[in-house]
Design a protein that fits this description.
Blueprint (H helix, E strand, L loop, with lengths): L2 E5 L7 H9 L2 E4 L13 E6 L2 E6 L20 H16 L5 H12 L6 H16 L4 E4 L11 H12 L3 E4 L9 H5 L4 E7 L17 H7 L2 H7 L3 E3 L1
Parallel strand pairs: 1-2, 1-6, 2-5, 6-7
Antiparallel strand pairs: 3-4, 7-8
Helix pairs in contact: 2-3, 3-4, 3-7
């Protein structure tokens, strides 16, 4: 039974996002969906001095009705990224896997791509390569005939186009989608509930659900591969 997941492109998202990607045969990443402010598209959280802190990739001011592949990284990022790199160094310089992860992080932050979708997609591909996730990734704009649909209709249409019989969504989808709507189309809908494995964060109280960057800084790849399998499908 072919498994499909569809999700917005997020910048260095949390472990559950990559659990979902790793659990499916085809992952469709939205490139033609409307960008929304105060979302996870271009921000996430990291661990600093025992507390979660936000980090953000600034987005150039433009129409609120543009899709994510029509938005651009702000010109100010060229100057702000030095501060962002310094914050990550302060947070993780003494982390056990800093030396392994830091070169990749610099490559991501120094990406010269200014299209927001392609900037985020580059970071996503880098993480997948590092974690050896080989799921086939397809931009939503490549799935012909579904761009004029929205919500569950578009998701069902994408599954049908790709021959998917099992659609997997993150926990937040429970408020949006009903299993019976998918069942009527012959598609099983499941929600992936991550099981967060505690790991040492400099001896502080464990904070789950931070950016995948935090997981990579404190854990070897083989352990993260095990974490990717620790979830429940409901």
């Amino acid at each position: 039974m072919k498994r499909i997941a569809v999700m917005q492109p997020y910048f260095l998202p949390y472990l559950g996002y990559f659990q979902m990607v790793n659990a499916v045969d085809h992952f469709v990443i939205y490139d033609d969906i409307q960008y929304t402010k105060q979302s996870w598209f271009n921000r996430n959280r990291f661990f600093l001095n025992g507390k979660p802190h936000y980090f953000t990739i600034p987005v150039k001011k433009d129409s609120d009705f543009l899709n994510v592949d029509e938005r651009e990284v702000s010109p100010d990022y060229q100057y702000q990224k030095k501060e962002l790199i310094a914050r990550f160094e302060l947070a993780y310089k003494k982390a056990p896997y800093f030396d392994q992860v830091y070169p990749m992080l610099l490559e991501i932050l120094n990406c010269e791509e200014r299209n927001l979708y392609r900037f985020i997609r580059y970071s996503f591909d880098c993480v997948c390569d590092y974690l050896k996730i080989d799921t086939k990734v397809i931009p939503s704009s490549w799935v012909d005939g579904e761009e004029n649909l929205s919500g569950k209709e578009r998701l069902i249409g994408i599954c049908e186009k790709l021959g998917g019989k099992h659609y997997i969504n993150l926990p937040g989808g429970r408020t949006l989608y009903n299993k019976k709507d998918f069942e009527r189309k012959g598609i099983q809908l499941s929600f992936i509930d991550p099981i967060f494995t505690e790991y040492d964060q400099f001896g502080e109280k464990f904070i789950p659900g931070l950016s995948i960057l935090d997981v990579m800084m404190f854990n070897p790849v083989d352990k993260i591969k095990e974490m990717l399998q620790r979830f429940e499908l409901n």
